[in-house]
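Cont'd.
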Amino acid sequence: MKNLFYIAFIFLQLSLSPSFAQNLEVCASCEFTSITGAVEIAKDFDTILVKKGTYKEYNIGITKPITIIAEGNPVIDGENKGEIITIQADNVTIDGLHIINVGTSYTTDFAAVRVVKSENFLLQNLTLERLFFGIYLEKANNGKILNNTIIGDAVEEFSSGNGIQLWHCKNVEVRGNKVKKVRDGIYLEFSDEITISNNISSNNLRYGLHFMFSNHDTYVNNLFENNGAGVAVMFSKFIKMEGNTFRKNWGTASFGLLLKEINDSEIINNVFEENTVGINVEGSNRVNYFHNDFKNNGWALKVRGACYNNIFKENNFLYNSFDVSYNSRLNDNKFEGNYWSNYTGYDLNRNGIGDVPYRPVKLFSYIVNRTPETIILLRSLFIDIIDFSEKVSPIFTPDNLVDKNPMLKPIHHGTN
Amino acid sequence: MVQIEYLHKKFGTNHVLSGIDLEIEQGGIFAVLGPNGSGKTTLIKSILGMVIPDSGNIKISGEIVRNQWKYRNEINYLPQIANFPGNLKVKELINMIKDLRAGKKAEDQHLIELFRLAPFMNKKLSNLSGGTKQKVNLVLTFMFDSPLIILDEPTSGLDPISYLRLKELIKAEKVKEKTILITSHIMGFVEEIADEIVFLLEGKIYFKGSIRELKAKTEQPDFEHAIASILTTSDV
Amino acid sequence: MFKILKYSFFDLVRSRWSYVYFLFYLLLGIVLLFLNNDLSKAVITLMNVIIILVPLIGTIFGVMYYYNSREFTELLLAQPVKRSSIFLGQYFGVAFSLAMSLVIGLGLPFVFYGIFNSSAIWDFSLLLITGALLTFIFTALAFVIALANENKIKGFGYAILLWLFMAVIYDGLFLMSLIYFEDYPLDKFSLAATMLNPVDLSRVLILLKLDISALLGYTGAVFQKFFGTNLGLILSTGMLVLWVLIPTGIIYRMAKRKDF
């Protein structure tokens, strides 16, 4: 139905155009030897074909609905002079360009491609290298960013930009992109109804994905790997996080996922693997954690500050150094029916549920919170003994923080 | 053969050997006697290097033995308590000692027949009686041809026949001009075979000489009384 | 020395205890793998076994062997064999047979389980290597204790005490001093304290594989360098080897002076 409508829409456009849309070719021996030149001449709904070659251009301003398509991997070399393409019109498509050497500035956020106050844009199959900011959306709505590859060379946070940045945007689809070695892989600020799916964000200096003040967003099936700190979702509501993988975010302030002031959200079917902290939660309420796998993390879950009404259900906690760490004695969250590989209880009635409740918070995690150096005693027999005595009669850990129905076998989440 | 000069050894505060000077010539049977705790075994172990003396020298064939080990190739030693690694079979033990003294000719077959050990060759040492163990012990001691033979209580636990065989063995070695050092509590045995007596008392050599000389010195008609008289006079 | 080693080794290989030890590990391996069917969990449980049980068995076995083989020793002392060879030979005989029981006993079930096709092979090899090193260390310490104590009961007592100290008490004191001095920079101290206890050392060596994500959560620069690079692995292994060499050296020296 949607497709039909779309086709009809294209026909309508074609028929309404005063003159039929033209193809403008750009190459060394073509009518146009620069993209800037072609863009200037192009009329609405024209298509510019950029052929193989290297184009030393920057500040290409697009102010009309046109399509730019690359053929044979042409390269636009900005020679570090500034921004490359700025879009200030609706219905612009840019496809397959290879853009390198975006200018770096401490005062202006130069981007490889910037979309300003526009709608219905499509940025796809772009390759962006040696850049400051990659794709920068400013108050842009209803667009798509698909299958782009962004490879930065960020070394310091203050002199690098973000791979894909959305600022005050609405209803944008970010799908199938690969972002590497920039400051934040994907950054959202004041952006709602954004769908981020099937992206790979890795080796970035700061966050693989960073949310600020953005609501009703969804990110699914992304891979976040080896980023400086992981993924940070802050001051946002109604976020759906599903089927993502958070891996190998190692370091002193690193985590797979940081939730800060996040309310009414869902974290389902994600995998947290080999992170220093799987999920770091601060001041988050009414968040559902269902069917996630926490595997080989330092801390699967670090809960700090006021967190109320969160539900942890049917997750697998596998071989984490610490399953859950709390910094207070209060608990208002519910742990129910999870699988804990550290569980040592039994199941006499053979219903698959352990007969003895599991206490995921160990005394040792408190000690480590207090004196971090004690981490070196992890898994020592002495520590096991004091953990055991705490388990028998909790003094430091929240008394009601138990999983009353721990599963005996890892939970199969089923495919989604 | 063996020269001991000014040998001292303390175990804690206990002066076991206090200045032993002793020269043992080549050839002949020497009995080291003395009451319990007089230092007989310590003296023997010092010669073997099992006890490290506090001071003094031990020379064997003119060589100082401290921290040496090759000289033990020239010594056959029969320890007092015949306890062996229990998991080994008799055969294995004999082969092991032969292996450790590779390069020396071993006459074990003859000895095994002499002490009728053949049926025990495949038994584990932990399953043998004390007497049989002692026989194995004797085989291990006499199977090599060495100029110096040291026997610590060789007669203990032996049945009369084996006892006779032992005496024959010792005499045969003597004929071969060997030097044989023996400690024993069986005075009859000592009297029968020893050429010379070394009597230790409180870590010193009280007497050294032949049995006849001992009898003359103590003015006693027989050997046992002579020994007894030393002990009683020294007590006073 | 190799002759003595050979005989001690064969003697031990034939003793009931080696079989018990071997069967214990075999059974443990089988139970862990085939009842649980979970390789990662098995490796973690194994680690606990290795850092606690291996030292205990090493000490007890070492002391026991020394006292039980006194007569054997005396027999050898009268033979033309170098003194140090006798003791080092016996020590290596015991340590080798224990280490072999461990490696083969645990190795077999894991091989049958298909460890070679698993990514856990490195963790597992590290476990076995650490276990073997711990066997050598604690057997050597046991020999030192036994050489220093004629009295069997005393020797056993000290050996158990040594184990208890290294496995539990040391960490208790360690933890208390860390908490007591928490206002001071402690990362150098805690690394040094780890180096001084072979049980902790082996534990840290295994942590480097199993819990690296947690270890990297700590801020100290020294920690970061230690755990974040190969430095930790190299230093820990080196220290463990040193922990084998030093007691072995002590055995050598004590053997030279001891009376029998």
